[in-house]
Each structure stands twice: as C-alpha cells, then as structure tokens.
Design a protein that fits this description.
The protein is of the alpha+beta class. Helices cover about 25% and strands about 35% of the residues. Strands 1, 2, 3, 4, 5, 6, 7, 8 and 9 form a nine-stranded antiparallel beta sheet that branches. The longest helix has 15 residues, at about 145-160. It catalyses: pyridoxamine 5'-phosphate + O2 + H2O = pyridoxal 5'-phosphate + H2O2 + NH4(+); pyridoxine 5'-phosphate + O2 = pyridoxal 5'-phosphate + H2O2.
Length: about 210
C-alpha cells in the first residue's frame, strides 16, 4: 500500500467564530454531546500526553469521566507510569480524536489530584469487576503471565466476598485544568477551521489559526 496516496476530503461542515461559545468548556460540552449523538464508538476517549522525569514524552488513551471545576477528569492507579510522569511534570496535553465527524479538540494544562472524597464518589459507581481490577493491577509494572493477574483477581474476589469493595489508597482521579484549548474542524481542500482559546486573567481570548 502506498500510504502517501491515501487521503480523503473533509466535508462534515465548517466552523466560524460566531458559532463558538465564549467559554471553551461549554463549547467542548456541546461538541461532546454532538459526538455522542453521532454514535461515535468512543466519544469520551482522549489521548493523554505526559513527559516523565527523564524528559521522555509518552501517550496513551484514557477515558474522560467528567468535567469538574473547569477541568477534564480521569482516574488511574497513582503508581502507574502516567501518574509518576505527572508527579514529575504536571503539565500535560489531551487530544480528542473525533475523526468520524472531522473534528478534534486539543487541550494543554496542568493536572492536579482530586480529593479522596471526589475519587471515592466515583469509585462506588464503577462495576464491581472494575473495582476489583483496580485492586488487582499494579498498573505499568511487569507481570510474568496473564494467569498471575487473573489469579490475583480471584484472590480478591474471595477476600471481598459479597461485601463492599473499599477504595484503594493508591487509586484516584486527576483534574486537568486547561490553559489552551483548540477546536479543529476539517475543511475541504485542507482549508481546515481552527480556533484557539487561551486563558487570560479575566476569561478567555479566542483567535483563529491558519490550517
């Protein structure tokens, strides 16, 4: 296959300044709702980019679990590679790749840990299997075989029985407070529409970028 020959036109629609809300988080919610209505496979999937203490960038897909206090929320093991990278450098980037509707949203900002109460409030809403998985996995650490992980899951199922699964002290949420958010709408002949929100003391500045 000649990858350089693969291309398509972006015809889902344009984006103009008067279509944007003054608040980027409100605009994001509007686009996310449209993504859900368009029945995208994973509308809340976002690429989280971090830089660790060695200066190495890394990316992975996590799921958006809420918008809280002006930030994007996700949950993870605090011993994971992403959490260790955030501890070293809390400046991160997010990408929502809504390719099916010719859109993407990019946000950069600072990640902060959520409170224990906030994390617990979400944990109790998770399926029981996911609660146990949070206990079983020492995320990002080596494992000799999948069977070892499955055995640990069974041990925890036996331990907790039918009782309540407590919130692990090594698990919780992060809130990413954005400083810049770009909304990208694909356009015909590669004349895409891009609008960048930048945080200012009294609100947000909006400027249009060339494609």
């Amino acid at each position: 296959m000649h990858y350089e020959d693969y291309r398509r036109e972006y015809t889902a629609g344009g984006l103009t300044r008067d279509m944007l809300n003054a608040c980027p988080m409100t605009q994001f919610e509007h686009w996310l709702e449209q993504s859900v209505r368009a029945q995208l496979e994973d509308p809340t999937a976002m690429v989280l980019s971090t830089i660790d203490d060695a200066g190495t960038p890394w990316q992975r897909i996590v799921l958006l679990k809420g918008l809280s206090h002006g930030g994007f929320v996700f949950y993870t093991n605090y011993g994971s590679a992403k959490a260790q990278a955030i501890a070293a450098n809390p400046r991160v980037s997010l990408l929502f790749p809504w390719n099916e509707i010719d859109r993407q949203v990019i946000a950069t900002g600072v990640a902060e840990k959520m409170s224990v109460a906030e994390s617990a409030a979400y944990f109790v809403t998770r399926p029981r299997e996911s609660q146990i998985a949070a206990w079983a996995s020492r995320q990002s650490r080596p494992v000799s075989a999948r069977a070892m992980l499955e055995k640990q899951v069974q041990v925890l199922k036996d331990k907790f029985g039918k009782g309540e699964v407590p919130v692990p002290d090594f698990w919780g949420g992060y809130r990413i407070i954005p400083e810049r958010i770009e909304f990208w709408q694909g356009g015909e002949h590669r004349l895409h529409d891009r609008f960048l929100y930048s945080r200012e003391d009294d609100g947000w500045a909006i400027e249009q970028l060339q494609p």
